[in-house]
Amino acid sequence: MTKKCAGNIRSDRQASPGLQIDVEPCADLLMWGGQPVWPVYDRKQRRVLRDYCRLVGRPIVEVTGQPCLFAPRKQGLVIGVGKGASRAGELFAHLTGRSFISIATLRDLGVRSKETEVILGLSEVLDVDWLERIYGNLQWQRAPGIIAARNEMALVLQALLRSAAAHLDGETSRAATQIFPTFDTRGDIEGPSTAIFGKSAPPEAIINAVESGSDLLTLLTHSDGVDAKISSHLSLCSVKTKHEDGINFGPYCTVTGDCFRHNKPIPKAISDGHIVRPASLRARIVVLCACNVVLDPRAPVAQEYGYLLRLLESGHMGVAIVSWSIVSLNERSLRPLITCLLSGETVGRSVATFNRSAEARTAGLKFCILGDANIRLLESTTKTCTISGMSPHRSKKGQSVLREAAAGVGFLRGYLMNALVDSRDPDTDHLASEALVRLQCYEQLLWTGKPVEGYEGSAGVALRNGVLAFIARRGASVIAHDWTELAEQRRALADGQCIHCSGRLAKYLYKFRNSEIPPRRFSYCGRCHVVQDSPHTEDVLLKCNDGQFELYGELPRRNWAALIRLSCQNDAESVASQWPDDSNGAPARRFAPPRPWPIGPLKCSFVLLSGSSLSIANAPARDERRRTRRE
């Protein structure tokens, strides 16, 4: 017998693509059709599960579950801490197919910690000392998740919701949304797969983005645990204005009735649209990087007044990755975690990898997991097909292309950010910031498997245009200055002969601290200066003959953009021209830039972006005709 729910009817006994629930359960542990059944005891539980199913686009199916004995179906251990966690812990373990044990306190965790995948308990388990011990363990290859709630019934609700999030796949309306309210991104990006908002983003755009749903939502901001800044006009806050449930340790705003973030009475702040409720955040994975996201049980303000517990109680989020200590806001430090998540790795392995990384140690930053640590982001709708339940895989050629593109992105990011720090020109700064935003959009699409090339207005075209616009303004002659200090090692190669003056050509190989970035070849002539600056696997040279430039070496036939920049002593007179393509789609072998040229000795730079790989070839030149005409 089956039941009806929201138009979903099942008349067979095949495994459901959605979530099987029983609204009149006869026991906690139920099965139907060989699949676990979620027992629903009240309207709140039903509403929360329905909200999450809507988020990921999966149906709820009502069935009559059959009682069963607890029997683990896969590896992994769920640990319940304290007497109040036994029921919820056993239910969660059954729904996720893991083993379950109960311990009195976290001190009893002991040697079981290495096999633990989830820890359940009342909100007291969110103790910052224990978070430091658990997530500061650099030996773990996979960090465990924590499921916590205010009381036993709330913990049962969490067990139902977090297990449903682990059970259901599906995609939301957008792959990734990133909010950086303390950073100027120099232009916000909104697209079908990515949204990036800085401090100048309009409030309505941010609200629409967080409420529309994302696979990954990232918020890097200021917080005191009670509220968090989303923009200059928006705050994330649970808005508890009175003492509830015998809680006597509320923030000062509960006494005065004034919102100090927006300097007005709380009802006025709410009516003016300044307050964003935690339940408004809709995402499968939420990353909160801010100070004191987890309020310690011993803190002056009770955990119940923080926005975190309210966020966990909503059905609009699958798992949260949050910081708990004082955080130094740095978008670059956060990037390795986001990159790992977007590559399709599980939350547990992503957090463990990040917490033991050099970036995390340098920034003093660690994250904990609130939910099931085995959740991961899906590949895009263009993901490879699977056969007989086999895991999707990427071909060796596809993996190679992905590695090359990621390596180029890594170099461009370091180069642009270092150039931005060194620059003193506002227009150049703006172009660098714009290029970085396009680079971030390109990288997110790359890691989520979405196409970056081959369509009008593609992310690859936007990236190359943005980087070349910056180089045309800043000058190719200072590119090496912007990136050489990022290298860890310089090794001298055998000297060669300069193709321009036949003099001695010194060659060097630079290796970077990030091993994923390929070494770069750097060639220098004492008379002609920099001759070549490119990845060691690429070899393109430029030569000038009678006002015409010639290219030597292997050239790409697609997904490229290039320019020629003629620089003189007065950089204001320097000019840049787009390099044309040949009939086969590759850059033309010969090209004469339009005249007039700048006066005097020129440094001529051919700048090529192939995919995301940057190569520069230089040649000296002089426009004798213009000099003679002026004289």
Automatic annotation (TrEMBL):
Keywords carried by this UniProt record: Plasmid
Superkingdom field: Bacteria
Protein name per its UniProtKB record: Uncharacterized protein
Organism in which the protein naturally occurs: Sinorhizobium fredii (strain HH103)
